[in-house]
Amino acid sequence: MDHRTTDLACGSGTLLAGILTEMKRRAKEQGASTSRLRELQKLAVEEVISGLDINPVSLQLAAAQLIAGNHAISYGKMGLHQMPYGPHRNGSDVAVGSLELFGQSAILPRLSGLHPEYEVLNRLKSKRVHLDLIPGEDDDPLLEDSVKAVKGVQLLVMNPPFTNRTKMGEKYPSEAQKKMRQKIDSLNAIVSEYDPDMLGFVDKNSIGPLFVALADRCLDGTSGILAMINPAIAITTTSGHEERVILARRFHIHTILTSHVPDQTNLSQNTKINESIIIAQRFEGEKPPTRIISLDRFPLNEGEVANLHQCLSNCTTGLISDGWGEVSEWPAGRIEKGDWSAAVWRSPHLAQRASEIANIESLPTLRDQNLVPAATGRVLRGDFKSSTSDKSGSFPILKSKGAEGQTNIRAIPDEHWIPKNPVRQESFINEQEHPKTTKILSKAGYLLITAGQNISTARLTAVASEEKYVGNGWMPVANLTPNQAKAAAVFLNSTAGRLQIMRFPGRTLQFPVYSAKETENIRIPDLTDGQIIDALVDCWHRTADMEVPQFRDGECEVRRLWDEAVATALGWDLEEFSKLRHLLHREPFVRGLGYNQYG
Description:
The protein is α/β, with parallel strands linked by helices.
């Protein structure tokens, strides 16, 4: 057979069964009879489809799905392989599942062959990589069939395990878990040394990127196609930037599909995170734009899957028939720079304008103006605890970021906190203040920006006041005067500010978290421009005591006033600004309902 398909972490075979179903559907469309379909199923399961997993029970379930309805298929001829995982019987080594394939020369050539004097191994040793866990010179004969099944495949489908390294091998003794983590470190180092691009690709927290790197090694070098389910945050956050850039360098990112229905966000079982399907293919020459598919509903059965497939086949760009959603294009240049943010938005126009605003060079970033948001929440949660205003040593903070928290643009503290561990009074640098209090309050600011919120039920993205505060769920920004903070707060709550903040969500699309590193890249007006500052500060004072509705409530006077002030101060088109604001009101995760849903 010329065509082969595999899944490096197939589990119970859901993706492989989907591939088989699609094969049978297409054959049936071409007029295949029932007996011919059975023949083709046998051929596909025994010679075309393969899968790897660490769990024998999962592999049995995968086999049952693939064999279903056809007893002529030989279980022994199926390409399902159990990968070694956990401590070896002799207790001296450990295995890490499908990632063991990195130790096979057909997948990754021997380092010693590439570097006769073992310069690479010496560098690895200097990095304190555990050399006893680096694969030896000989291939493992037990993995020979697995290597043959996956090497040079034309199609690789995968839902990469995003297991945190700290949770690997939880059922094994702590010493075995430690060795497994060390082996992952060793594999990270080997892959990075062999392929320097991967140095920024591998992840100390998740093993997922290593699976993507393995997929790259397994796929056919000229025509291979990678189709994988990824958490949506992998295509938005700073931590995934290098992975996106490398993938875009080695593949044409053909399609990114995301559901924009608030109650239908994921493609996997037992998870509540947003997920996207990414389809990438080997490509020579100048790459075309990426196809962005935004779904307004999920297919619920095979008939609807077939209908969606047909509708997509007939839709180059624009609305998909039968109310499935919309198809748009995202420029290859942005994809290659790691900007895949179009998948975040249901509205292609919002995606386009948000990217343009985030790249207006005449607007300096927060970092350009030496304005660095401080992630004080983690410190507060670690070293401090909730208290009361009358407690000696307590200080006010902004905590709540939900509907009942900050309700207007004027920052109002809603809790008092105090250090968890008291120290003797005579050890204080300041007689009235705990040293940890002194340290955290040095980061206080007149401006605080959200560190994450429910983008439907919350009300504000930034607040300001005449007093300096720190926040839990809010990031203070130092090096500002009160008036500069007020001006910045108006801009950050305007449509231009919200579009930028929402471009790179972490965790989920409904309740994203925002990193300080990403936030400092937000563009705002030059806060040394007196004319701009005066206009925005005037707006702050006019709206400071107005209650701000929840985002899901849509159009309101206060948001209109903020947009008018920003458009006037910067000379922007107010009509276009108003259009963007109304589109933002309609975004499913803002409104709380999909495009075709009504409360």
